Amino acid sequence: MRCDKKDLLLYAVTDRAWLGEQTLAQQVEASLKGGATMVQLREKHLDRAAFLAEARELKALCGRYGAPFLINDDVALALEVRADGVHVGQSDMEAAEVRRRLGPDRILGVSAQTVEQALGAEAAGADYLGVGAVFPTGTKDDADAVSCDTLKAICAAVRIPVVAIGGIGPENVGKLAGSGVCGVAVVSALYAQADIQGAARKLLALTREMVAR
């Protein structure tokens, strides 16, 4: 398996919105120290050279902590820095084409909001699905809501792991119990917090509890 279920338990997705005095690498390291199991670098506004340098730095950092490192959308850059994989949305490059470019050994994650999309992504070679937004979220303006029933239906329809995303935090992660997800992908629940390491540790424990129920 390119992607183990345990890697998806606490999936950290970066956002520069809350950097403050810290660098992105410092924030990501804090989340890894707290137990983040996978990291996705999501950048929309950096120029190519800065993005490349940042990706290389985070790849090395994740390597030290044994956490898979993925890049959002940018297949060419992921190949250039030898990232562990790529995550794409429904409006990005087709999953089958991403798999062709990545080859058989790297992780491919695909966003899905319907059972049809989920089955299509699985058939195209996805290793896991990101499904959401499961709760209201301010991080992604264009995130459509996915009901609990749809989340359960997607988990039941596919053989690959499913991770929930969107508005997830310590106050509501328990509501995902019994849905079939194997973990959560979070942004502000980690990177908007004053104590990122502590937030990661708490959310990891709550997610483990939720998945086991």
Automatic annotation (TrEMBL):
<keyword id="KW-0479">Metal-binding</keyword>
<keyword id="KW-0784">Thiamine biosynthesis</keyword>
<comment type="pathway">
    <text>Cofactor biosynthesis; thiamine diphosphate biosynthesis; thiamine phosphate from 4-amino-2-methyl-5-diphosphomethylpyrimidine and 4-methyl-5-(2-phosphoethyl)-thiazole: step 1/1.</text>
</comment>
<feature type="binding site">
    <location>
        <begin position="187"/>
        <end position="188"/>
    </location>
    <ligand>
        <name>2-[(2R,5Z)-2-carboxy-4-methylthiazol-5(2H)-ylidene]ethyl phosphate</name>
    </ligand>
</feature>
<dbReference type="InterPro" id="IPR013785">
    <property type="entry name" value="Aldolase_TIM"/>
</dbReference>
<keyword id="KW-0808">Transferase</keyword>
<dbReference type="InterPro" id="IPR022998">
    <property type="entry name" value="ThiamineP_synth_TenI"/>
</dbReference>
<protein>
    <recommendedName>
        <fullName>Thiamine-phosphate synthase</fullName>
        <ecNumber>2.5.1.3</ecNumber>
    </recommendedName>
</protein>
<dbReference type="InterPro" id="IPR034291">
    <property type="entry name" value="TMP_synthase"/>
</dbReference>
<dbReference type="GO" id="GO:0000287">
    <property type="term" value="F:magnesium ion binding"/>
</dbReference>
<feature type="binding site">
    <location>
        <position position="140"/>
    </location>
    <ligand>
        <name>4-amino-2-methyl-5-(diphosphooxymethyl)pyrimidine</name>
    </ligand>
</feature>
<feature type="binding site">
    <location>
        <position position="92"/>
    </location>
    <ligand>
        <name>Mg(2+)</name>
    </ligand>
</feature>
<dbReference type="GO" id="GO:0009229">
    <property type="term" value="P:thiamine diphosphate biosynthetic process"/>
</dbReference>
<comment type="similarity">
    <text>Belongs to the thiamine-phosphate synthase family.</text>
</comment>
<feature type="binding site">
    <location>
        <position position="167"/>
    </location>
    <ligand>
        <name>2-[(2R,5Z)-2-carboxy-4-methylthiazol-5(2H)-ylidene]ethyl phosphate</name>
    </ligand>
</feature>
<feature type="domain" description="Thiamine phosphate synthase/TenI">
    <location>
        <begin position="10"/>
        <end position="190"/>
    </location>
</feature>
<feature type="binding site">
    <location>
        <position position="72"/>
    </location>
    <ligand>
        <name>4-amino-2-methyl-5-(diphosphooxymethyl)pyrimidine</name>
    </ligand>
</feature>
<comment type="function">
    <text>Condenses 4-methyl-5-(beta-hydroxyethyl)thiazole monophosphate (THZ-P) and 2-methyl-4-amino-5-hydroxymethyl pyrimidine pyrophosphate (HMP-PP) to form thiamine monophosphate (TMP).</text>
</comment>
<keyword id="KW-0460">Magnesium</keyword>
<dbReference type="GO" id="GO:0009228">
    <property type="term" value="P:thiamine biosynthetic process"/>
</dbReference>
<dbReference type="InterPro" id="IPR036206">
    <property type="entry name" value="ThiamineP_synth_sf"/>
</dbReference>
<feature type="binding site">
    <location>
        <begin position="137"/>
        <end position="139"/>
    </location>
    <ligand>
        <name>2-[(2R,5Z)-2-carboxy-4-methylthiazol-5(2H)-ylidene]ethyl phosphate</name>
    </ligand>
</feature>
<dbReference type="GO" id="GO:0004789">
    <property type="term" value="F:thiamine-phosphate diphosphorylase activity"/>
</dbReference>
<dbReference type="Pfam" id="PF02581">
    <property type="entry name" value="TMP-TENI"/>
</dbReference>
<feature type="binding site">
    <location>
        <position position="73"/>
    </location>
    <ligand>
        <name>Mg(2+)</name>
    </ligand>
</feature>
<feature type="binding site">
    <location>
        <position position="111"/>
    </location>
    <ligand>
        <name>4-amino-2-methyl-5-(diphosphooxymethyl)pyrimidine</name>
    </ligand>
</feature>
<feature type="binding site">
    <location>
        <begin position="40"/>
        <end position="44"/>
    </location>
    <ligand>
        <name>4-amino-2-methyl-5-(diphosphooxymethyl)pyrimidine</name>
    </ligand>
</feature>
<dbReference type="GO" id="GO:0005737">
    <property type="term" value="C:cytoplasm"/>
</dbReference>
